[in-house]
Amino acid sequence: MKLDKYTVGKRYGKALFELAVEGQATEEVYQDLLTIRKVFEEIPDLGNMLTDVRLHGYEKDAIMQAFAQGFDGVVKNFLLIVYEYNRSDDLLFMIDEYERRYDQLNQVALGSITTAVAISEEKKQQIEAKVADVLGYKRADLSPVVDPSIIGGVIVEADHQVIDGSLASQLNGLRAALSKK
User: Fold this and answer.
1) Which SUPFAM superfamilies does this chain map to (predicted)?
2) DSSP single-letter state for residue 3
């Protein structure tokens, strides 16, 4: 039975994380994985190239060797194993799982901030600090989302919770209350 990308990502990401914890290198591995993610964002077809049957094995080997050369130890070995098992196109799922476990270990709440207009980095950091404090985390990493339909205010989603302070939801609540009377 062929495993889906999500399952493969969870298994490989978990294995890499456990190795990093064992070697007390979670931060170094995390930074390397961020670099790898950036490369995959700049060259989105890299994973597909490494698994493409139209390329000769020696061509793919050369690409992977050159790519892995930029990394040391656990990450380099991990990349080579992922390539050897023909899972390069699943690498971003593996990084996602590692990152999830890394954030859990370091008590980082992940989520999003939705506003009607873009907010400043300073305001984002203030909201992240407050969310981390309220939820009991060391810090929060919230991705900004702009949605003009909320009219104003902010919606924060983190740690499976939603704090809806949007003007749109307040107006809907007022509308519902007025329609009951």
Assistant:
1) N-terminal domain of the delta subunit of the F1F0-ATP synthase
2) P
